[in-house]
Amino acid sequence: MSKTVKVAVTGAAGQIGYSLLFRLVTGEIFGPETKVALHLLEITPAMPALQGVVMELDDCAFPLLDYVLMTDDPAQAFDGVNWALLVGARPRSKGMERGDLIRANGPIFTTQGNALQRAASDIRVLVVGNPANTNALIAMHNAPDIPNERFAAMTRLDENRAYAQLAQKAGVPVTAVSNVAIWGNHSATQYPDAENARINGQPAMEVISDHDWLRGDFIKTVQQRGAKIIEARGLSSAASAASAALDHVKSMENRTPDGHWFSAGVPSDGSYGIAPGLIFSYPIRSDGAGGYEIVQGLPLSDFAREKIALTENELQDERATVADLLT
Ligand code: NAX
Fold first, then answer.
1. Which residue's CA lies nearest to atom 38 of ligand 1?
2. Most distant CA pair in the chain: distance in Å?
3. Which of the residues 67, 89, 172, 227 has an alpha carbon 20 to 30 A from that of 185?
4. Alpha-carbon gap, residue 140 to 251, rounded angstroms
């Protein structure tokens, strides 16, 4: 075995954790030569449940699982880790507005941001817990020792959802679809971009002639997919969310093939006129060595610009709501 990668997962006893942990150690993400150490963080009352999950991890006898650390202390959880998947968050309770949820999550992500400074020098952070973009913004601001570009919020599930919708509409396998991008916030204002997408290498707008669908129900379906799943399942997306988080890690670990991209909420550098510093989902390309670039020069129609402005405004409002936490 050539190396060990240390991965912290927060909220590890939750739904997403249950779909995520096992696949992290099969070799599919970091390769068959890399051992994986899991640092699992939970809140104190969930430690017994976490113990049950770890018993199951033991029972899989995964050859690549190096060790498992269970803790309710963020400082211990993030000590020396190479990846931190921040899944745990305060859920929305009855009657809670989005603003209340954002504020309720503040203390979690200030504390975790601070503790992340104990991580390895190559740490990369993916925030899954909602509101993901603003939680990532808070964590990033509270970890001044870590370069901002190491922080991302997950919009890969939204991207995967858009891939599936386009493939089904065009009657092609999902592998025929490429170059889908999610712009903005992981929320109902996000803009799933079909105008730059391709199907079998052709513009999706040429392959799918139903432009009313592309500009209407396609966008709405992706934006509201999470709510539809809760309605149908009685529980929020978990396996698909875990799968998307793993896709994100894999994409960051490997160089993105030429002409392709994937989406993630990353700190805006002002690209496409977005306010600098917001955690904004863009199409990005990984260099496979820890760095990435925001894809430049994609054409955006007036329709797209209008949608992107809406989601940017929402993120500006969210940032204003937590301004006092952004040290
Ligand atoms: P669960 O409620 O099943 O699990 C969350 C776990 O986090 C619980 O075990 C809880 O004890 C733990 N937790 C809470 N506060 C914590 C803290 N301060 N430190 C460590 N652990 C803590 O939720 P689950 O379905 O797993 O979803 C987790 C988060 O992902 C939620 O915020 C959810 O909204 C968000 N999602 C984000 C998605 C995305 O695309 N970005 C999609 C799926 C999902 O809805």
1. 128
2. 55
3. 172
4. 21
Atom of ligand 1 nearest to the CA of 158: 40
With a 6 A CB cut-off, is 113 part of the ligand 1 pocket? no
The structure tokens 């190096």 sit at: 66
Q: How far apart are CA 29 and CA 8, in angstroms?
A: 14
The verdict on whether 186 is a catalytic residue reads yes
What pLDDT is stored for residue 264 in this prediction? 98
Alpha-carbon torsion 37, 41, 42, 44, what sign? positive
pTM (predicted TM-score): 0.98
Q: Which of 39, 186, 248, 260 is catalytic?
A: 186
Q: Identify which of 157, 105, 119 has the alpha carbon closest to the alpha carbon of residue 39.
A: 119
The Cα 30–Cα 19 span in angstroms is 17
Average pLDDT over residues 79-83: 98
Type of residue found at 51: Q
Closest atom of ligand 1 to 235 CA is 25
Question: Is residue 2 pLDDT above 80, yes or no?
Answer: no
